[in-house]
Amino acid sequence: MIKYLNSLKLGQKLHLLFFACVLIPMFLTDSIILMNVRDANRENMARDTEKTAYTTQYCLNNFLEYPVNVANNIYRSSVLENFFNEIYPTSADYYTAFYRLHRDQIFDDNLGISGSRVYIYADNKTILNGSGYYRMDRAKENEWYPAFEDSGKTSTLYFYYGRNNQQGGNSYKRKLTLIMKMDMPTFSGCEKLLAIDLDYPAMAEELIALDLNSDIYLCDGDKILLSNKTDYHVQDNYVTLELKSRNVYTYPITLYDREYKLYVIPRQQSFWQYVSGLSGVLLVLVLVNLIMPLLMMRLIEGSITSRILSLEQSFENMEDDELSPIEKVEGNDEITALINSYNRMVERMNELMHTVYKDRLQQQENDIARQNAELLALHSQINPHFLFNALESIRMHSLIKKESETAEMVGKLAVMERSYVSWGEDLIPVQREMDFVSAYLLLQKYRFGERLNYELDIDEDCKEIEIPKLTIVTFVENACLHGVERKAANGWIFVRAYKEDGSLKLEIEDTGEGVNEEVQNAINEQLENVSLEMMKGKKHVGMLNACLRLKLLSRGRAKYRLESEEGVGTVFHIEIPLEKEKRRKASKA
Q1: Hey, which of 73, 167, 299, 431 would disulfide with 171, CB 3.0 to 4.6 Å?
Q2: Residues paired with residue 19 on neighbouring β-strands, in sequence order
Q3: What digits encode the pLDDT tens for the residues 508-559?
Q4: Residue-wise pLDDT tens digits, 170-188
């Protein structure tokens, strides 16, 4: 595979990279996402429709609950049983019994069922038709009677299209009647039948009032009995259900011991209907995902190959006595850096061709002098000049006034400032550096009081290891100023020194405000690429200064890393290889 790739031109490799790493994964991931979204859409729709079915059944059962309870109470009434079983010799006797019944009991034509009427039929020829009580032959005139007789049941719920008793004539409407034989085993006598004409419009309006997100159809077979669609009117006859949608969910539903089917059709679009509606947008997105990357890839290919070809031609046009640099350098990427490196190489090689060994030695000495000058420049940046005689006068004046705490602080400050301006040696033991840190933190403790707490932890085998002077103090100062000082709550500063994996590890941690990830990355990038030019003309370069000194004195082997979290704190890690320290000690000896 490597041999095959090496034989391909750069443009072919870019095309292969596009198809293998962009196009094919894009189609695969998009397909997986679409399938997952489709399945989730189906599951959500199924849950919604199941909830809709449950809500519908609860609404209908709640609507029927009171009429059923009324029917059961009538069914168990011994008073009504005796009333209908009695033989009345005359009409006056019937009216007397009827008056007595309604005087002692609360009976009317609807028994408190709003919009409904209650009828009781008895096979007793001595009763008179009217006020909700009728002879049995009147029951046979109703549309529901033949179906009830054929069912063989003692009670049922019957939807039908029948004559409107209230308007009379040939007016018809949809009706719903609860029918029950009054044949309680403890009673005897004539045959009796209870019928309650329920308020069908009220039942339909309750379904509409549920404000469901689906169209529902309560069906007996394929006949629509109830629906929340407003175009189904009570004066119209029942119609047959015609299912045109694919997203139809069917649930069995029981009303008064009778099974019906409830069809639920979500009003929201299915996933594929929604996707098909966006086909134009999806096509544009697909074209954009294909054409734009291809165009960008062609531009990148031209940007790379044209400059590589110019570099290749420069190597082919080499003369024996002198190399030719590339005159036209464009861009600021890695290829530009390669061309610049080539030009520097050409310049350097041409210089070497015209110099002698002595000139080379002189150049090396100049380089060493330049590095020493840079190091001295760094020293001067962190070399504050204080008036030590003035500090001593302040300290003595404080002692005379018996302000011993102030005198102690001034004394500590004088010790630190003498350490700052004393550059007799740049390398000191870790223990001495920790003494500076302790003095500095004691001064800050005097300033912050209980807001500042600190802890110094130095392994015994690290105390004599030499490090650049004021390295740790610089980072501790940064932790105080930018960590603890900005936080209203009490804060801690931890300084640790230990050996690990052949290196001296230094950690300066604070529990201050911390910084966000963007600032953290910017600081780490600065520390990684620190240079003298970077610090020229800038303020607050203490950490950069310390890192550059470590970089120069360890020949680039020192490592630094800042870790921080907003609201939690910051940890600065320093790693110094110990092999370099041993070599410095040996050279110094």
Answers
A1: 167
A2: none
A3: 999 988 889 898 998 888 888 877 777 666 666 778 888 887 777 777 788 8
A4: 678 888 899 999 888 878 8
Mean pLDDT for the chain overall: 78
Q: How far is Cα 197 from Cα 79, in angstroms, rounded to an integer?
A: 22
User: What Cα–Cα distance (Å) separates residue 291 from each residue in 11, 24, 132, 225, 296?
Assistant: 16, 15, 81, 56, 9
**How many CA atoms, within 13 angstroms, populate the side-chain half-sphere of residue 503?**
14
- CA distances to 7, 79, 109, 182 from 85, rounded to whole Å, are 109, 10, 20, 12
Domain map of the chain by residue range?
Answer: 54-266, 280-351, 424-588
Type of residue numbered 332: N
Check if the beta carbon of residue 228 is closer than 8 Å to that of residue 212: yes
3-state SS assignment for residue 360? helix
φ, ψ of residue 12 in degrees (nearest 5): -65, -35
Question: What does the alpha-carbon distance between residue 230 and residue 565 come to, in Å, rounded to a whole number?
Answer: 60
d(CA 203, CA 206): 5
CA dihedral 575, 581, 582, 585 (to 10 degrees): -160
Enter the DSSP assignment of 112.
T
Please provide the size of the chain in residues: 589
Q: Are strands 133-135 and 117-122 parallel, antiparallel or unpaired?
A: parallel
Domain 424-588: CATH architecture, name and number where available: 2-Layer Sandwich (3.30)
What is the rounded distance in angstroms from the CA atom of residue 453 to the CA atom of residue 444? 10
Q: How many CB atoms lie within 10 A of CB 367?
A: 10
CA–CA separation, 268 vs 247, rounded Å? Answer: 10
d(CA 118, CA 108): 8
State pLDDT tens for residues 48-96: 888 989 999 899 988 888 888 888 888 888 888 889 999 999 999 999 9
DSSP annotation of 130 reads B
Q: Record the pTM.
A: 0.46
pLDDT bucket at 122, cuts 50 / 70 / 90 = very high
Nearest to 435, CA basis, from 396, 403, 406, 476: 476
Q: CA 421 to CA 423: how far, in whole Å?
A: 6
Separation of CA 262 from chain center: 38
Task: Order across the sheet with 172-181: list the strands.
Answer: 133-135, 117-122, 192-198, 172-181, 155-163
Hey, which residues does 565 pair with through a beta bridge?
A: 569
Beta bridge partners of 122: 135, 192
